[in-house]
Amino acid sequence: RLKDYSAHDSCSAGLLISGREAMTSPQSLSSAPTTWKVVGGANSGGILVRCGCKVSSQEHMERLENGSLVLELELAGERLKYKRLTGKGPRQGWVSTRFKGRDLLVKHPLRVAILSAGSRGDFQPILALAIGLHRAGLRTSIWTHEGEHEMAKSYGLPSFDLFASMHSEEQERSEEMERAQELLRYITRMKFSMMYGTPIAGVSAEDFWGVPAQVMEHFQAEASQRIARPLFDL
Q1: Between these two residues, 178 and 195, which has the higher pLDDT value?
Q2: Alpha carbon of 92 to those of 69, 70, 72, 81, 88: distances in Å?
Q3: For the Glycosyltransferase family 28 N-terminal domain, which residue ranges apply (predicted)?
Q4: Main-chain phi, psi angles of 34, to 5 degrees
Q5: Computed over its alpha carbons, how large is the radius of gyration of the chain?
Q6: Are 88 and 68 contacting, i.e. CB atoms less than 8 angstroms apart?
Q7: What are the tens digits of pLDDT across the range 179-199?
Q8: Least CB-packed of 12, 163, 182, 225 within 10 Å?
């Protein structure tokens, strides 16, 4: 399948192929990047950020917001050079991990969970992305449908089944539309003057005439080539 797919998208297929090699070669995986979470500065608008490692270096005008996640670029004792991933504050700078015996930042391993609810064509690039994140050392998992779930597992990625099938969902939706059209054809043959002033919908039709009806999550709201009139006109 990868060879067939590469004819359409050689870039994504290349990532998939190299990703499979990475799964079978633990030496090719880089060490996980170290990430930290800001736990200090909750009552002071964040923690102080400086331009250099020394505590006497110039201060940034902004503070690094409490709750922010940062990537460790360099660690010198209790001085941390960071790159901000989430939150507000200077994009990059130096901060103290502790102050007067209290933690200002704590290590916070970054985990990535990817949800893919689309088709196989939607899933292939997402799988390539997950493999890339895994190779970068991040703990990455995928949540997807049955077929794609097994495909992700074959690459050695932690994968979890959404307990759903796109094919079965499409089949069920098609059957619902067929039942709705049958109901529409039945109602359009009725003389509406008999029920003047009474809304005609699936539930009322079932109550009055015993017509089998199914309550649908989505229903046709406008006319189309297949359905000449709206299903429900309330």
Answers
A1: 178
A2: 12, 9, 10, 7, 11
A3: 112-207
A4: -90, 125
A5: 29
A6: yes
A7: 777 767 766 665 544 444 444
A8: 225
